[in-house]
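Teaching note: in complex prediction, the entire set of molecules is handled at once rather than each chain in isolation. The prompt given to students was simply: 'Predict the structure of this complex.' The entities are:
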Amino acid sequence: MSNTEERIMRPSAFPMIEPEEATRLIFENVPAPSADDLEMVPLLEGDGRVLAEDISATQDMPPFNTTAVDGYALLSADADQPRRILGDQTAGRLSGLIVTPGTAVRIMTGAPLPDGADSVIMVEFTGEQGDTLTVQFAPKVGDNVRPQGQDLKAGQPVLPAGTLLGPAELGLIGTVNRPTFKAVRRPRIAIVSTGDEIVEPGGEAKPGQIYDSNRFSLVSAVRRAYAEPVSLGIAPDTKEELRELIRTALANYDGLITSGGVSVGKLDLVKELLEEIGAIHFGRVNLKPGKPLTFVTVEQDGKRKPVFGLPGFPVSSLVSFELFVRPAILKMGGRTKLQRQVVQVQLEHDISHSPDRNEFTRAIVTEQFDPAGGGYRYTARTTGAQNSSRLLSMLGANALLRLDPGPSLFKAGETVPALLVDRPEV
Amino acid sequence: MSNTEERIMRPSAFPMIEPEEATRLIFENVPAPSADDLEMVPLLEGDGRVLAEDISATQDMPPFNTTAVDGYALLSADADQPRRILGDQTAGRLSGLIVTPGTAVRIMTGAPLPDGADSVIMVEFTGEQGDTLTVQFAPKVGDNVRPQGQDLKAGQPVLPAGTLLGPAELGLIGTVNRPTFKAVRRPRIAIVSTGDEIVEPGGEAKPGQIYDSNRFSLVSAVRRAYAEPVSLGIAPDTKEELRELIRTALANYDGLITSGGVSVGKLDLVKELLEEIGAIHFGRVNLKPGKPLTFVTVEQDGKRKPVFGLPGFPVSSLVSFELFVRPAILKMGGRTKLQRQVVQVQLEHDISHSPDRNEFTRAIVTEQFDPAGGGYRYTARTTGAQNSSRLLSMLGANALLRLDPGPSLFKAGETVPALLVDRPEV
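The expected output is the structure of the full assembly:
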């Protein structure tokens, strides 16, 4: 016990690394999906998935000459003369009707163009009396005809592997007659809160205890990184139970996120346990908030699995997730664009800051049209007190301002880089 | 049969309305959530939900004076003198230790501040020998102490009803000891494709038939509007079966989207059936693509349920969904910000367009820093041929350029409004 006490009160032995080095180490050590990480996905479940095969057109689209409008299929050469109506060509079947000089066929949008016809006139420009059609003008060859293969040619590449799938992409996969497709499996990320002071909401916090918040934040954040979060609850108290929890998590899931106790108590235990079975790539980053961020990989069943030890303060936990864990999870999910957009923003007020840390300040960035410059300007104001514990400072924040080490005051009107955290990467 | 033929070849009887009028009619007639549409949601499932109650702090946060760092709780008045170490204060329990002049207590981040102490010094600035603590400088009163209630006061409003929930919000709800919360139920939106020419992917398209794409696009798009899509497949052929399908859809779900056959065939049947049981608010909009867009509401079991009849061409279907159906579904889901951001963009090339229609052209908008103006400029290029059938024109498009009726050519360098469709509304 005295041994433990001595250990936990020693300042961190991990070298302090810069954020760029942390990012480099994470990207170097977090695996992209392998062949084992692919699965077949039905079209109705495809939103937000990453395609893992090249999709090509199997036939021309449209597969036959067709009409873009409701009207009459006819011959241009008949000019503005009346035509005799032969019958109907509806969508979905071949009517067998053949348009010859002096005749026309009623045709519905999407129906195949009858043999013989070279153009379609819209119903709005026609009259019908008995079986005689009159036209207000002479159609030109090709009018309102969508020729076979206009949109896609058989064999044409449609979507490359790696594409993030949304409405248009899933429609295209249906069009080329694929009810399912090969996709990257969503990474399954286990999440556990640590700390003797942490109590499940709905339970009873005794004096000295508080309710868990990080796990709920992280489950939501992992889901927004297109992965599947798995909550493992609050970590057990004993080393044996914690060892078993970590083993089980790494055997069953693709990665693990812990929050809390990064410098003392439980997570020292986590680090100790992980050192038995894995490699600690870093344990301290020159960040504010987020300094104790820890990154470990464990080789398990032939796969490399990342463990992220996030700080316990809610803001530190979420900011370090956003900066380092989210890009890692995107990489694991087969995404290729991993980083948020960074823009230059003008400060609306003075901001004091730590002179020797890379500070990521929560801010509300707004975009305003600048009639003088003819462009847009981004301006930023912070979300009030920036304590690492004050989750309220994350509310409404759509950006993290990066305040590099240096002056202890950034003045109103100065320009700094801002990571826009509420925009997708598209 | 001849009666049917005559009907289906008559031009649309619906007046052509402007897009703004269509939006007004939709917002006027699509219901916001009522008390029946709320449900209790567990924290782990809360991402993307809309809060339906006000959440307040039930106690101070932190609930006790605590430390922001690992170090020693002590008295400022002892200045830089050595202290005698009384023992440990770990997180999660009360140690019962009392700091008196000349003494100190080891303390871990998040632990309650022992009685008597008025400050904490970080372990980095200390030394320990036997039970004696030395400090490198005199701490000031309050150093590294997080006073009770610093982040939240008991009773303080935290989140108002109507808030869209993400990582920070869900963490806050946990913090205030709420394992579940009242939220708006996700609207359940049924989706059906119509058209005799439409075949399920994986089936066999006969001559004149094509594979369904719209339903897969719309399921994905509905999911991205924070709603729950329900695919009802491809509509049956007969009027009786279709009546039964519409009745069942409206009895079981909050809304219905059909695609295809808006001007002829099946959807005339849909409109006919809907006129029996509901009200058609409009059946034609001055749009390109999307002109035949139809909006109907049906009173069912005391609730008003919207039906959107989208055109069959894939691009028309998706563009009219984006412009009109998405905001309606957001409203049904309790969202208050319903419209995408619109910015002014400069055209990278000439664009020809319909002189009498409101055209929404798919485009790739990029944002560039303009060192001269000190701001950002948006520029736009279109995604190739803009046929309504060419789903490829949606690929990679992150904006819809609005080209109002007027000149038939917009020139490179001209500025037009663009709806940014790949940004969330935050």
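Point out the following to students. Residues 1-8 of chain B have pLDDT under 50 and may be disordered. DSSP finds seven helices and 28 strands in chain B.
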